[in-house]
């Protein structure tokens, strides 16, 4: 079983604590995204699993085997670095074959190149490829030895936005077609939410939430996670049962009674057909949607995500809340 279990992982660099007891369990065939801001420890976590750093404490188990004491080449872990890091003097086929041994190398190279959509590219040189193609070659090289685990270190960060979006889906499809167990390290929320089976949100060297993407987005464990994963709209209220009294009226809630900070996502603030209760003060238009700043009579300002046609600044609109807010005690 190609599972990954990390327990109580610690790592310091001088006075800097990079990992402070990180725990993570990845199931066989699962694609997990480790998501967090710069400096949270996510890259150190990946490097410890890969064998590029030795942890100060804790354990790393892959497929039932403790590996934290082993050198990288003995771990059966494949790594896809940020910019592919292909050997420029070797052809695509020889890059993918690097580290393979035995008579079946050619067949395995063809198999993984086909899996990543690069059938027929074996004789090409890296400089003849686009950025996205180079990353797919790097993935094929990591997959070729049939490792127990594949680690992807921000593999799309150097690509432009359009290519990044299309390549994400191709890489995820290739990993799932191979039945690979994989961990993707990223600071990109869209990347984590759209690709992963589960998302591990990391902060200050620890995993603070580990759940399916929808749960992380809809039910974050604390205000920091709520603000980090997606756009957050905050509103003060007093919770009584399943309703909170707020400056913009009663709002359905999930959470403890009493004074609270209410989390809404911008798409929950819906422009409706009712009597106007707010004024549009600003519009940020993105084509597929728009972020609309709404000002209420009492001075409260909230932001709404609107699909399709956007209102114009100065327009009076009716605003309704769709679904329940998540309440955090204050």
TrEMBL record:
GO molecular function: ATP binding
Alphabetical list of SMART domains matching this protein: AAA
Keywords: ATP-binding, Cell inner membrane, Cell membrane, Ion transport, Iron, Iron transport, Membrane, Nucleotide-binding, Translocase, Transport
Taxonomy, superkingdom: Bacteria
PROSITE patterns: ABC_TRANSPORTER_1 (PS00211), ABC_TRANSPORTER_2 (PS50893)
Residues annotated as domain ABC transporter: 4-229
UniProt-listed Pfam families: ABC_tran, TOBE_2
Full protein name: ABC transporter ATP-binding protein
């Amino acid at each position: 079983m190609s599972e990954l279990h990390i327990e109580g992982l610690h790592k310091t660099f001088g006075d800097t604590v990079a990992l402070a007891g990180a725990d993570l369990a990845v199931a066989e065939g699962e694609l997990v995204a480790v998501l967090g801001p710069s400096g949270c420890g996510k890259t150190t976590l990946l490097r410890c699993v890969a064998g590029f750093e030795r942890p100060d404490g804790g354990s790393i188990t892959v497929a039932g085997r403790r590996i934290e004491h082993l050198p990288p080449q003995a771990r059966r872990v494949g790594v896809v670095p940020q910019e592919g890091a292909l050997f420029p003097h070797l052809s695509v086929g020889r890059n993918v074959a690097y580290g393979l041994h035995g008579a079946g190398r050619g067949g395995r190279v063809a198999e993984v190149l086909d899996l990543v959509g690069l059938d027929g590219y074996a004789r090409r040189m890296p400089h003849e490829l686009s950025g996205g193609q180079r990353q797919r070659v790097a993935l094929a090289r990591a997959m070729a030895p049939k490792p127990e685990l594949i680690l992807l270190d921000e593999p799309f960060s150097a690509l432009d936005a359009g290519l990044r979006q299309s390549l994400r889906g191709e890489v995820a499809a290739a990993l799932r077609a191979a039945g690979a167990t994989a961990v993707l390290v990223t600071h990109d929320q869209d990347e984590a939410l759209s690709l992963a089976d589960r998302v591990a949100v990391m902060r200050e060297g620890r995993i603070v939430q580990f759940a399916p993407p929808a749960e992380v987005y809809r039910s974050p464990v604390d205000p920091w996670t709520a603000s980090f994963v997606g756009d957050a709209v905050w509103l003060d209220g007093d919770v009584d049962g399943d309703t909170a009294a707020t400056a913009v009226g009663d709002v359905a809630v999930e959470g403890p009674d009493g004074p609270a900070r209410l989390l809404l996502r911008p798409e929950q603030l819906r422009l409706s057909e009712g009597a106007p209760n707010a004024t549009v003060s600003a519009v940020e238009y993105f084509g597929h949607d728009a972020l609309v700043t709404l000002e209420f009579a009492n001075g409260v300002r909230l932001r709404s995500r609107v699909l399709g046609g956007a209102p114009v600044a100065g327009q009076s609109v009716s605003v309704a809340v769709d679904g329940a807010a998540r309440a955090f005690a204050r």
